[in-house]
Design a protein that fits this description.
The chain has helices at about 1-10, 10-30, 35-40, 50-65, 80-85, 120-125, 145, 155-165, 170-175, 175-185, 190-200, 215-225, 235-240. By secondary structure, the chain is mostly helical. Helix 6 (about 120-125) crosses helix 12.
Length: about 240
């Protein structure tokens, strides 16, 4: 083995050819599964897209680096399933750009945190984690309640997502700003529009407890409350049997 390596190092052309061969093998191993991706990703007829408010919340989640301490992928290990719920399916991340599976858990996995806690709990926790979890090491994000949410560019965000395959309609894109406001203000005409465009199961309520004002807290809580609920595929009988 050492003799072969020594001889390759003495031949520039031979070394380059060998590197190309090895890199090609590695690339093929990575690329080959993509040819059968339509067969390996589960079907989820009930899968829905993120609302504009949830998209804004996801952007804030990324901006604040939440993904660095919280993963969003429950593995098939029994202890993870017992703690967090059904293991994550590929289809559940099909509209995530970028995906936020993560690899580190300073805090718990959030793949199925949606509606696990109340909006009040989530707001208190983000404003000052020690108010609800005394031993928490998570920093406080008090500015989320103070910062008004920017909504004028949400149509552009939805357009960008449609470019990479998320099936937003023209109507959803045109009404993105209004729908963001309406989702956090249920007793308004805009709130009714959210149900029309995203379905009756959409969370439409005052997430941060302050009506008539749309904040970054509204957006982030709305995003957290939908995690694990874009589709019911993970709770189907065939997966329950696999557990």
């Amino acid at each position: 083995m050492f003799g072969l390596h020594y001889n390759l190092e003495r031949s520039a052309i031979g070394l380059v050819v060998f590197i190309v061969i090895v890199a090609s093998i590695g690339g093929l191993i990575e690329i080959a599964p993509l040819f059968s991706i339509d067969e390996t990703v589960e079907e989820a007829p009930d899968m829905r897209v993120y609302t504009p408010l949830e998209v804004a919340g996801r952007n804030i989640y990324i901006r604040e680096g939440c993904y660095a301490c919280h993963s969003q992928m429950i593995r098939t290990l029994r202890d993870e399933v017992e703690r967090y719920g059904p293991y994550s399916l590929a289809v559940e991340s099909s509209y995530d750009h970028p995906m936020l599976w993560g690899s580190k858990r300073t805090g718990p996995d959030l793949a199925r945190v949606g509606n696990k806690y109340s909006d009040d709990w989530q707001t208190l926790h983000l404003n000052n984690p020690r108010d609800v979890v005394p031993e928490s090491k998570m920093p406080a994000y008090r500015w989320l309640l103070r910062n008004s949410l920017r909504t004028d560019d949400l149509g552009e965000h939805l357009t960008a997502l449609r470019t990479v395959g998320v099936p937003y309609s023209d109507e959803q894109i045109v009404n993105a700003s209004l729908d963001a406001f309406g989702q956090a203000n249920p007793d308004t005409p805009e709130g009714d529009g959210v149900f029309e465009r995203y379905g009756d199961a959409t969370n439409v309520r005052t997430f941060d407890g302050v009506p008539e004002r749309l904040t970054e807290m509204d957006a982030l809580v709305a995003y957290l409350q939908i995690l694990g609920n874009l589709t019911n595929a993970a709770h189907q009988p065939n997966q329950a049997e696999a557990e």
